[in-house]
Amino acid sequence: MTAQGLRERQVSDLRHGDHLCLAFADESERRDVLTSYLSTGLERGERLLYYAERSAPETVTGWLRDAGVDPAPVVADGRLKIVPVAASLLAAGRFDPDATVATIEREVADSLAAGHAGLRLTGEMDWALRDVPGADGLPDFEERVGALVAGRRATALCQYDVRRFDADRLTVADRVHPAAATVPALHEDAVLQLHPVLRDGRRELRVAGTVDYRNVVVLADALYKAAGWPGDVRLDMSALEFIDLAGVRAIAQFASWLEPGRKLRVNDLAPRLCHMVRLVGWDEEPSIVVRPSGERPAQE
Length: 300
What we know:
CATH topology of the largest domain: Rossmann fold
Distance between the termini: 22 Å
Number of strands: 14
CATH class of the largest domain: Alpha Beta
Strand content: 25-35%
C-alpha cells in the first residue's frame, strides 16, 4: 500500500467497478501497463474507450500489435475507440464534468446494447495541466467517474505522468482512486524485490527482502534509474529484511553522486538497521536523510 492506504492492483486482475490510478515515470512503464489493460479487455469481450491527450492513435494500436493483437479489426468494428481529448472532453473550449460523465454513461449503455461484456475506459490526464476553464474540477470529476463505474459493467484507469504532475496533484489523485495500478518491477526474485510506488504524491522505490554482495549491483542499477524521477530520490525500506556493508556502500556512493540540492531519502528503516547506519557513519553524509520506521515524515 501507499502511505495513503491505496491498494496496488495488477491491471490484468481488474473487474467491473474498479477505478484505478496509473502513476508512471517513463513511457515503457505506461506502455506495459496499458497493453495489459487493453488486451485483457479485448480478451474478455469488452469495448475499449481511450481518451488521448499526447498519444497518437497509431501509438496505441502499436502497443496492441506488439502484443500480438491485430488492431485493425477492433478499430473497424468499434471495439477500440481512440478519441482525442481536444475533440471530446475539451471540445467546447472548457472542461464540463457534467457533459463528460453523461457521455461516459452513454458509452457504457451503448457498449452493452451492442453486445459487449462491458466498457473499459482509460484517459491521459495531462489535459488538466492546461490553462483550460473547468480543469480545476478534475478531483470532483474523478470521484464521479468512480461512482459511475462502481455500479456498472465498466472499468476506469486514469493515467498520471509523475514527471508532469506535482506532489500536491498526485496526492489528490491518490485520494480519489481506491487503488493504484502496479507498474513493472525494476527487479524481482525470491531474495530481492524493487518496486516503484507512489507515496504521498511522490515516486518512491520500495526495497523488499535482502540486499547483500550478491545483488548489490541490481540495487545500484535501480537507484540510478530512480535518479531520473523528479525531485529527491526516495527509498521505502519498510520491507527491507537485511542489508550488508556492500549495500550500504552502494547507497552512500549513489547519494554522493546526486547533483547539489537533491537528497536520497531513506524512509521507514528498521531500528536495528538504523543502528548499523550510525556505526558506519552513513547518516553523516549530507545528501542522505534517514527516517526510522514509526517516525513521522518531516516537512519538505
